[in-house]
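Methods — Computational structure assignment.
A single polypeptide chain was analysed. Its primary sequence is given first, followed by the predicted tertiary structure written as structure tokens.
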Amino acid sequence: MAVINICSEREEDTAHEIASITSQRLCFLLVDSTLIGSKLNNRKGIDGEGLIKRVLQGEIPPNLVKRLMVEETLDSNVIILNLGGEILFHGFPGTLHVKIHVPSYKKKPDRSAREKERNQRRFIHELYGKERPGSDYYDLQVKLEHMDTDFSVNLILKAVEIKGITDKAGITWRALKKLKTNLERLDSAARVNDELEHPGVPTFAHPSERDFARVLDFYRIKWQYEPRSFPMEWDEEGNVKEEFTPDFYLPDLDLYIELTTLRQKLVTKKNRKIRRVRELYPNIDIKIFYGKDYKRLLQRFGIK
């Protein structure tokens, strides 16, 4: 997948506007602190500032934030805003790192704005152990004193075209392998939603998986979460290039379960993978739950 990282230490609203318009033009998912906060706690909701404060107060592990960023990147083409993506994805192919410079004379920050800037810097330090990196981390630096928002967006889009990010399908298999390795490392300290309160529960990649596990528990069906990955493609040296990991395994039924609540384009891709797994491993029984079937199942149990 492709990653465009945008950051700005000042004028966060301007940077958000640029990132939002760019994401709409490219049909990329905008990943910011608000999105990450919503995934951490769907019931109470955590806004962007709330996420930063809870990380700084030690209530949310920094690795959990980075883990969710990586997960979104594995699922979609993304634009990451002010989350230190230039550090997390530094050196990865299929990425574009942009820094927005706001002139000091454009708007004198008040006390509240200065505190937000300090908290943002501390937040990045908590995540990566360093302040904002130097200019060598960025492919493009946009100075707003010379251009407006629309011109800035067009400049970023031109950089995307020149780098051929979307044409090359973004991140390579080697980079994906590195991302998944990072994800496993981050798992050791990460817990999503209920896992923050109940450490014994596995670290689910998506809230839908947690809800499905609750249904299995209700029926007292034994389950394991992502216990095995099935290689599907190898390079000339025999290294695994692509693999598939079903969401659940039910040992008493010897059955693998894969949940699909994604948009049709990604569902089609997942169906292709499952067909390939069935061809390579004919003795493996895998069942896929599609969006409508899954929602109907949850409604029976009053889970929305």
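Note: The chain is about 45% helix and 15% strand.
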